[in-house]
Amino acid sequence: MTASAPDILTFDLGSVTVREINRTLHGLAAGSSVEILSPDGAHNLACGLTVPISVRIEGHTGYYCGGMNEEADILVNGHTGTGVGENMMSGRIEVTGNASQCAGASAHGGLLVIGGDTSSRCGISLKGGDIVVKGKAGAMTGFLAQKGTIVVCGDAGEGLGDSLYEARIYVKGTVASLGTDCIEKEMREEHLIQLAALLKAAGCPDKPTDFRRYGSARQLYHFHVEHAASY
Amino acid sequence: MCGIAGLFFKNGSRPERLGPLFSPMLCRMESRGADSVGFAIYGDEAPAGSHWLTLGGTTQTDWPAITGWLSAMLASPIEEPRVLHTHAIYEVPLGTESAVAGIESAFPVVIMSSGRKMQIFKEAGSPTELLDLFGLASVRGTHAIGHTRMATESAVVTAGAHPFSTGEDFCLVHNGSLSNHHWVRRKLERQGIHFRTENDSEVAAGYLSWRLREGDSLEAALESALRDLDGFFTFCIGTANGFAVLRDPIACKPAVLVETDDYVAMASEYRSLADLPGAADGRIWEPEPGIVYAWEFQHATTPA
């Protein structure tokens, strides 16, 4: 750990372990700034943060980067492995490159911005977080998503929104196929307002009117009251 | 889990780089599979009319006795093998497969592979220690594929370790599990494909050998594997002149590829690739579900 620029703590994974870094991050005061060098695909970087600090990671990370994040602002200048921002509660995570599968899985809150493409199952079981993908989103994006919003500025892969509950999905490009019980829905004023705010927060120049909205048709058996006793 | 890694130099040049670059790649996958390790090296081509027969034994194996048995069985003098830890590599004439098959009942050894370029080494135990004992960091060649195993469906024994070879210069490593392997195995046995273990991954290797034998290209064989093999898989495949990667249609198991002008490398995780020269600035991507990725040498090559 060294102090490079004023008030920025710098860690290099060539000389410290992930556990040492995370332990230090957990003890920092609100407003602190940290930079992490040479991640080289390491897993579990900047996980479980609970205070509003700023973390910049220079390079490609492994699994679960920024997992369970609360309040912190995390920037990854590179690609991320499986499960970036998994179970995020609040705060912001931005990835300049691509994200592997299950980006933002079951996130309850906060904003996850992916500068490039996402692999399969982005936003799986989303529970209230917002995800903006500036590139393409892979197969089964929004699988089982319950609440929150997924914005895809490029194309979406096969099975978009399969078994969706109440999450909203906006796609600007083409959709390879819709998943079970996912349908295109009317884009009303409230949706254009919500989408404009998310695009602005993510720094996207795209126009909200160029997007289509997708959501649940609410036709799967668990939406029917006669099946209530099954649960 | 299980970890896999592969490295293929696209123009086959500078074979001395293979071991030093590939060994750390496979070591980093130990955290995904720590009970066995195996790797295939595509190295110096055997002299004309012969191929490499790689045998696995123990550190106590009486290799001179085996050399004598081979010489008698093949009715020609066989040179003493190159011994690497528990394995030995013999140069034997082509077309002697059935003549040498009896070696497994005559001695406590197992035939690991045969090929004009390919040699397979595998063993149950700590991957890092075994790779050191096999001397992977100093091997030469044009490409290599390897596997670190965390057994889920069959015992932790050397026979269950990958790669699986079911044909000359052909092998496969697999992360995942197949659900219809009994059915496919019965079908392949009727086609004369011989299996050595009860392992599902060996069935995948046998399936591809069968398609290649029937005249398919590697790409076509993998396309038909997508139709006939049911289950989870990321495969990495080596042939004498090629290298391929395939994931199942829902991409259950991880894979990352990096490609530069010089090489293509794949691994279960980016960690394995991070130290390759130029990797961080190369083309890095995840293979799409159900899409065949295959490479062949850009120029006809013999490692020099």
Commentary on this structure:
The complex is a heterodimer of chains A (about 230) and B (about 300). Chain A has about 230 residues and is mainly beta. Chain A has helices at about 20-25, 190-200, and strands spanning about 1-5, 10, 35, 55-60, 75, 90-95, 110-115, 125-135, 145-150, 170, 180-185, 210-215. The longest helix of chain A is centred in the C-terminal third of the chain and has 14 residues, at about 190-200. Chain A is globular and about 55 Å long. The N and C termini of chain A lie far apart (about 50 Å). The model of chain B is unreliable at about 300-304 (pLDDT under 50). Chain B is α+β, with helices and mostly antiparallel strands. Chain B is built from eight helices and 16 strands. In chain B, the strands form three sheets. In chain B, strands 7-2-8-1-14-13-15 form a seven-stranded antiparallel beta sheet, covered by helices on one side. The interface of A and B includes residues 62, 97 and 101 of A.
Q: What is this structure, in a nutshell?
A:
The complex is a heterodimer of chains A (231) and B (304). Chain A is mostly beta strands and 231 residues long.
Present the secondary structure layout.
The complex is a heterodimer of chains A (231) and B (304).
Chain A: E1 2-3, E2 8-12, H1 18-26, E3 33-37, E4 54-58, E5 73-77, E6 92-95, E7 111-114, E8 127-133, E9 147-152, E10 168-171, E11 182-185, H2 189-202, E12 212-216
Parallel strand pairs in A: 2-3, 3-4, 4-5, 5-6, 6-7, 7-8, 8-9, 9-10
Antiparallel strand pairs in A: 1-2, 10-12, 11-12
Chain B: E1 3-9, H1 18-27, E2 36-42, E3 50-56, H2 63-74, E4 82-84, E5 87-93, H3 97-100, H4 103-106, E6 110-115, E7 118-124, H5 127-134, E8 143-149, E9 164-167, E10 170-178, H6 181-190, H7 200-213, H8 218-228, E11 231-238, E12 242-247, E13 256-259, E14 263-267, E15 283-285, E16 293-296
Antiparallel strand pairs in B: 1-8, 1-14, 2-7, 2-8, 3-5, 3-6, 4-5, 9-10, 10-11, 11-12, 12-16, 13-14, 13-15
Helix pairs in contact in B: 6-7, 7-8
